[in-house]
């Protein structure tokens, strides 16, 4: 994370927490000739349009006041979606039992992509039960990306 994104996170995260939201991810960069700041927020009840508008106003106010970004940018606030990324230790604990996709920085047993049931997180390690039934334990520092996999509830049909 760059110093700028760390600074932005330091400004917006307390505002989000006060409003009852979790900052899932923060992305900042240039796209199509313009700078975009994206905030992905969540809460147990889920996220709707009103939540995004509320957070956009509150965060916009603090960013306007503190002015950490040296040029004009667009602020986007949205839900992380059904296949939300897992970034923090608490995410791996909270979503234990759910199906995830995980990619490692370097190959583990000859592969970098894994899919299976998240068993949990303990002592710096992510525990998975792969689709073939085998269990895999990975140190958190080896995890490049991880995200939930959308699953229909047993009583729902596709």
Automatic annotation (TrEMBL):
Tell me which UniProt keywords the record has, alphabetically.
Cytoplasm, Ribosome biogenesis
In Gene Ontology terms, what is a biological process of this protein? ribosomal small subunit assembly
Q: Does the keyword GTP-binding apply?
A: no
Residue intervals of the Ribosome maturation factor RimP C-terminal domain? 86-151
A Pfam family in this protein?
A: DUF150_C
Superkingdom of source: Bacteria
Instruction: Name the PANTHER family on file.
Output: RIBOSOME MATURATION FACTOR RIMP
Q: What is this protein called?
A: Ribosome maturation factor RimP
* Native source species: Neomoorella humiferrea
Its gene?
rimP
